[in-house]
Amino acid sequence: MLDFEISAAAAAALLKEKGARLIDVREPWEFATAHIEGSVPIPMGEVPSRAHQELDPEEPLVVVCHHGVRSMNVTVWLRNQGFENAQSLRGGIDAWSVEVDPKVARY
Questions:
Q1: Tens of pLDDT along the chain (107 residues)?
Q2: Which of 16, 38, 44, 62 is deepest in the core (most CB within 10 A)?
Q3: Residues annotated catalytic, as ranges
Q4: How many domains does the chain have?
């Protein structure tokens, strides 16, 4: 079984190599402030009503928030729903900005 968390560098490689889907669970104002190119915005509160309609339980999912707390909660929920390839981005979009792409704004 996959670890529940994935580092920013490993997530970047997974997105490039395996075509994983990046799910951003922050609020719309946060997404508007800064987001990772290609990420799909699904605010945390909407995940239960949208996950089974919009996400494939078989595909690799990287869940991102600001610092990694909300994304971990969503990842645990997704795993309990059968999305076994879901992983939380350790450190969130903040870690991504520091470790992968400094053009992504920090806030």
A1: 899 999 999 999 999 998 899 999 999 999 999 999 999 999 999 999 999 999 999 999 999 999 999 999 999 999 999 999 999 999 999 999 999 999 999 99
A2: 62
A3: 65
A4: 1
